Structure formats: C-alpha cells, structure tokens
Amino acid sequence: ESTMLDLVDLTTRFCDHVGLSVTAAQRNRIDELFGMGKDDALLHPRPDVVAMVATTATRAHVAVLSNCHLREVRGWPRSPLAEHVSVFARSCEIGFMKPDVRSYEWVLDRLGVPAAESSYVGNGASDELVGARNAGFGRVVHCNVFDSINGLVPVDEQQRRAAQARAIC
Q: Is the pLDDT of residue 21 over 90?
C-alpha cells in the first residue's frame, strides 16, 4: 500500500511463480473481486456522508489520507466525494502509510495548515489516530458510526481504537 504495486499484477506474478497462467479474462475478474466493496464505498457513498463532506468543505479544507492501492486511485475521480476534497493523499503515491507521521505531514503541507489547528477524523484502523496524535493534530476524533453497526470490527477493537482519540462521534 505504500508503492504503486497493482494487486492484479502481484497476483499474476504469484501465479507465474507457482506455474499457473492467468488469462486476460481472469485478470479482469481478479481486479473486479479486489474492488467489489471498495468500489461501492467510493463510487456510491451514502448521501448523508456526501452531504456531510460537502458541508464541511464549505467551512474548512477537507483532505483524505488513505492507505490504498491503485484501484482506489483509478476510481477516485468518479467519486461524488472528490469534488469536495482539497487533497487526496494515497499511501501508494506518497510512499508513507498511516500511522507514519510523514503521511500526515504530507497532507498538512499540501493544505498549508498547522497540525495544532486541524482535526483528524477516522475509525482508528491502522492505528491512524495514534499517528494523528503523534503528528500534533489539535483534535483527534474516533468516528465509529459504521464499525458499530456493520459487525466487521469486534467491540474490544472498537474500544481500543476509541481510547486512542481525544473525542468520539
């Protein structure tokens, strides 16, 4: 996630290494499978999420810092969120992943804002909230809205992440 490595290429190289060939149709299917959930979240976010980001963008700079692969980079321009985001920092392009402080510094530098006057909001995956605190963000918010209802993140993990924040939404 901190290089421009394409997951389909990686899978194809692995298959080649173990003596399996991959057809063009199989490569397309691999790409489709890798992106099923991510494409939907990126290209069809909930309307209330888009409205929240749009409203926030009228009052402050909005940036996205994502530990992501090339697939998300390709889809971002088509996302309804893109028009409201000043900076989209992709780990695979900037070379640093959360919670590395340099990734947060990269975003803040592009926005031209000091960390102490900035807020960081996240669900705490990848220990991103610890990284934001270490980067000096004035407000670090654990947003647990989706994790608390989707069943994908165990309650004890949600609590561990919340303890890393300075505020909870």
A: yes
Alpha carbon of 97 to those of 4, 6, 28, 102: distances in Å? 13, 16, 27, 8
Q: Which contacts qualify for 124-130: CB closer than 8 Å, 24 or more apart?
A: 124/158, 124/160, 124/161, 124/162, 124/164, 124/165, 125/161, 126/67, 126/97, 126/98, 126/99, 127/98, 127/99, 127/164, 128/65, 128/98, 128/99, 129/161, 129/164, 129/165, 130/99, 130/164
Rounded distance between C-alpha atoms, residue 35 and residue 41, angstroms = 10
**pLDDT of 110-145, one tens digit each?**
999 999 999 999 999 999 999 999 999 999 999 988
Distances (CA, A) of 35 to 109, 126, 135: 30, 20, 31
68 vs 60: CA distance, rounded Å: 24
